Amino acid sequence: MNVFELPQDMRDLYMKRRREDLSKCIDALSVSDFHQLSSVGHKIRGNALSFGFDRLGIVGEELERAAEKNDRDRSMQLLREFEAVLNEYHPL
Amino acid sequence: MIEDDIDVQDLLAAFFKPKDFEVMIYDDPTKVLNDFEKNNLVCDVIITDLKLPLISGIEFTRRLKELGIETPIILITAHSSAEVAMESVKAGAFGFVLKPLSFPQLLVTVERALHFSRLSSENASLKAVVRAHSTGQVEGVIGKSPGFKQVLDLARRVAGSYANVFISGESGTGKEVIAKTIHNLGDRREAPFIAINCSAIPENLLESELFGYAKGAFTGASDKKKGLFEEAEDGTLFLDEIGDLSLVLQAKLLRVIQEKKIKRIGENQQRNINVRIISATHKDLRTEVMEKRFREDLFFRLNVIAIKIPPLRERKEDILPLADFFLKKFVALNGSLPKSLSKESKESLLSNPWRGNVRELENAIERAVVLSTGEVIQKEDLIDPELSFSEPSTSFDFAQITGENKLPTVDELVNLYVRHVLKKNGGAREKTARELSIDRKTLYRRLHA
């Protein structure tokens, strides 16, 4: 869809930063900091699709929604899915 | 670009930089506002996220517009609501692009914004040129030589009075510009400034132009018409080339100045007028008086305050500032890319005698702007082969039009002679027409035959 072919190193860097986000989210959930979770979810919803990570974008959107409802279980489930997406990505 | 998400910053920079954009990244919109306020920032387009720390993209847009910054702003947002779109437009945003970013859409929006920015900038330049021309404010009058400064100083001082002003100077020195400056600096500035060239109109027509006429006053007067004295009520009437006014009209003008009343042709009713008269001529009016071609009493009535504009060759300091002004004007009028003058072309301008004065310089720059192909105007672009800068020749070369078996027609001969006289006069068309005793239309026709 986009005329712009994203350099691979940018995609790698993007996913590396998401791994740091995942770690922050796990910490936030342990102290019930839903604001932090919502903020990360919002960010991923806004930028993942632009990097071509459509599934991650959906995870971000649902994480933002679950955190806004202070829904711990759903948030936990989405963080697992977040981790799965990251694990499936293999940098070249 | 204003974006607090480092990934989007990287993404946009990676997209735009290879396309020859210089990208500046901010994460704090208030810093951008500060930089604009301190004139530390110049850019063609701003892309900003809607959701930002401290203030939103919409609030940023509003504040930037309040500062009078017209740089187009494109908002990027993940919120695709009509309300957000409406608010963005109301705040003054150029457009907005939704996340996830569609790069074709973003590029098209940026290109449209740049086009808009260029048009706005051209529009502003044109307005400035038109303003400078139409108001003739001293700020828009170009000249820093001591001779021209004296002229401006005198114009400033006489502007507040009601005295008649007489401006002398060679053709093309800017007599009308000074007349308009006097008008604009005085109390009459809100009223009309009307200029008429007395030498350009036949005598009987000039009388009806100046005084107006009643219905049926002469054949063709199918309706009554106000004259220029009435049109200029409360303002200024500029009578250019007054030295060419016939003795009959001189007598009528003298009566108007003395009585401050006019009578339309074909009417008996006197009408009061309140008009300041500024007159001008390239002729030496004292000689005209001595030789009885101009009324002495009228001369003294008009010549209450005399302003003499020096020719351009006597104020060389003004040549380059004037050239620069005309360059900007014609670049704006022609929609060309910005141009500058090469060192050689500047030297050439400074060494030219400019017998046609400022008007000749203006024509030369206009020609160069139109004909030059690069961004720098070269000496060659300034030289019109028809009206070259060489010293004028008084001889007339028949050889160029006489072939072995062909003799020129009378028309060809006349056209060549007209070009020769125009060249001798340094391109001053009015002077040439006068010398040849033909009107300007005939001159134009002969030059383009």
Short description:
The complex is a heterodimer of chains A (92) and B (449). Chain A is 75% helix and 0% strand. Chain A is an all-alpha fold.
Quick tags:
heterodimer; A: 92 residues; mainly alpha; B: 449 residues; alpha/beta; 5-stranded parallel β-sheet; 3-stranded parallel β-sheet; 14 strands
Describe this structure in words.
The complex is a heterodimer of chains A (92) and B (449). Chain A has 92 residues and is mainly α. Chain A is 75% helix and 0% strand. Chain A contains four helices and no strands. The longest helix of chain A has 23 residues. The two termini of chain A are 23 Å apart. The model of chain A has no long low-confidence stretch (mean pLDDT 91). Chain B is 47% helix and 11% strand. Chain B contains 19 helices and 14 strands. In chain B, the strands form five sheets. Chain B has a five-stranded parallel sheet with strand order 5-8-11-4-12. Chain B starts with 5 loop residues before the first helix and ends with a helix. Chains A and B meet through helix 1 and helix 2 of A and helix 1 and helix 5 of B.
